[in-house]
Amino acid sequence: MSIARSGSAIRSIIRRARIVVATASAWLLMFVHVASAGQSNSLMDISSDGKLLACSNRDSGTVSVVDLETQQKLREVRVGKHPEGVSFLGESHNLAVAIYDEDTVVFLDADTGTRLGETDVFDEPYGVVSNSDGTRVFVTLDYPGQVVEIDTESYKSLRQFSEGQFLRGIAIANDNLTLYSTEFYSGRVRRIAIDSGKTIDQWSGPSSDNLSRQITLHPQRPKAYLPHIRSRITAARGAGSIFPYVTVVDTRAGEGKRRRRIPMDSFNNRSVTANPWETAVSPDGSTLYIVFSGTDDLIIANVIDDDYRELTFRAFANLGHNPRAVRVAPDGKRFYIYNALDFEVVVYDVTTRRPLARIAVTENPLGDEVLQGKRLFYSALQPMVGRRWISCSSCHPDGQPDGRTWHNPEGLRNTQSFAGMAWTHPIHWSADRDEVQDFEHTIRGQLMQGRGLLKGKLNPPLGTSNRGLSKSLDALAAYSNTHEFTLSPYAKNGLSEAAQRGRKLFLSTQTGCAKCHSGPFLTDSLPNGEIVRHDVGTAVDDPDEKLGPTFDTPTMLGLYRTAPYLHHGKAQTLEEALTTYNHDDKHGSTSQLSKPQVADLVEFLKSLPYEDPVPKAKAAGLTKITN
Ligand code: HEC
Ligand code: HEC
Fold first, then answer.
1. Mean pLDDT on 432-441
2. Mean per-residue pLDDT of the chain
3. 413 CA to centre of ligand 1 in angstroms
4. Among the four 11, 166, 306, 501, which has the fewest Cβ within 10 Å?
5. Residue nearest to atom 43 of ligand 2 (CA)
6. Picking from 153-157, 343-347, 461-465, 513-517, which range would have the lowest pLDDT averaged per residue?
């Protein structure tokens, strides 16, 4: 974003030039490549005049505005639960912010803090970019994977383009004709024509490419950069499972090397980096900045104009806790880092790379214990991890799944969501752990090879508790248990008729679903000290299963966004979980159901939760785990 508005003069020349040669389309195409500047999604943005910086404070539910001349926070505005992408509109001081958990895009005047308007979207708005005159914003919806176009005068949503799944990254070319989006769980990049809303080109990586949440365009060259990891599901061990990358996409259709993955773990020849989160290119196009949220560091790379090496190492710097954003000032003299778990923005001089100021943008809203636990959860350093490639968050980003089924020693294991986990312990598909403190076994094991958080004796995962033995281990548990259920977007207007018919089937003795999927969380897995497992016939699908055939009953709340299904992740859809993978009606009785009945049942499951389950749980005397 910062890079984008480097010259309104240049743009007006482009506009004039376009009028003169509008018919010479081949020339125009070439010119656009030369002139296009990236405007990319970020948690932080700088106004085109370089005067204001805005950042989303995800944990506080606020946006902060900083005066870049005085380097003071001007204001902090409450916007809603879990704000993500933020963008200035064109050359103005107005802002658009995506509120992930509230399904709205909020518009603010950064000079006054006034809320100007709000647009409802279907679900999970993530990345935001604005066109150059600020009349439109384009927002990715993580779920269900769409781009929404919003008019910034009426705050009306004009169009939705249904392109891909779990869209996060978004960038707009300076021609204002083209968008680039990334898929979170595959790193697939699409070029979308804004006028038709259609994908006109796409670049896919290998199936291990994962957690791609941002894309940056080079200001002059036909290149796009996306930070992401690679999840190697067949190697659940410390040195071989997760790798950091920046992928460079050649945006010229059909020319040259189209997609090149540059490993970041060996890039600086000194130390391994983990979990690249965002990138930014300097306005002159010479420099790429990459922040690593696992190893808390920064790589500064030279952008090479050779279509081959693409990037070479220039410098390295240690940052604060969990850096999640980097932006460069429009004049190229400063760069800014957002250290999410220090709640601060740090101003750096581009030449000396020294910090010039630290600006507190919000207060710690988490409390000391949860903050400590969250820092540990995101850390790829000791005492959590021996060899720096991996952190808990590499597979559980913000408590969400990584969309992968890992080949664990005990068999195939689909990564679960942490939503509502505090109410549905014991944990793991096999209920082989009954508290998050048991993950000290993971920290010390093959996967992470860390020193660990507990001095002294570690108890086995079940039986004698590991709670209360280590403050930091309890803090890790306290953070892990903070993730709440969010309501299903399919039931915003209540249950549809199909979902109501499905609900009757689900509760009927005919199907028997509610025998196990019971109570406010639709599971009989509760933190009451009892371990309940059932054989629902699913172990036969994985010949390498070592802990089956019985499994913990998972909650049904939030299923709409957590495909694939079952412990082995083989059911791609809910329908498949209830039909193809329900062998001999061992998993409830479904073989007697007609196709429309199965569809009704699926409609019901997709609508969960349609109300907040917590009041009912409290009324029923249930309690949640707090650490
Ligand atoms: C390589 C990926 C990976 C890493 C790294 C990882 N996990 Fe997991 N996690 C998984 C998978 C896969 C499962 C499902 C395993 C199972 O159920 O047996 C899981 C399950 C869990 C669950 C249970 C969720 C539930 O609802 O039952 C918790 C809690 C958890 N992990 C915490 C952690 C913590 C804490 C760390 C860091 C110490 C961590 N994980 C590191 C992949 C990972
Ligand atoms: C005997 C207890 C029991 C009954 C009855 C039962 N389930 Fe399950 N359900 C489970 C268990 C245990 C699992 C986990 C199995 C696995 O992962 O292999 C599960 C998993 C699921 C999943 C996958 C969840 C996920 O996160 O991947 C769905 C969907 C589901 N059940 C729906 C139903 C429906 C619909 C019915 C009725 C037709 C039903 N279940 C009947 C115990 C039961």
1. 96
2. 92
3. 9
4. 306
5. 516
6. 461-465
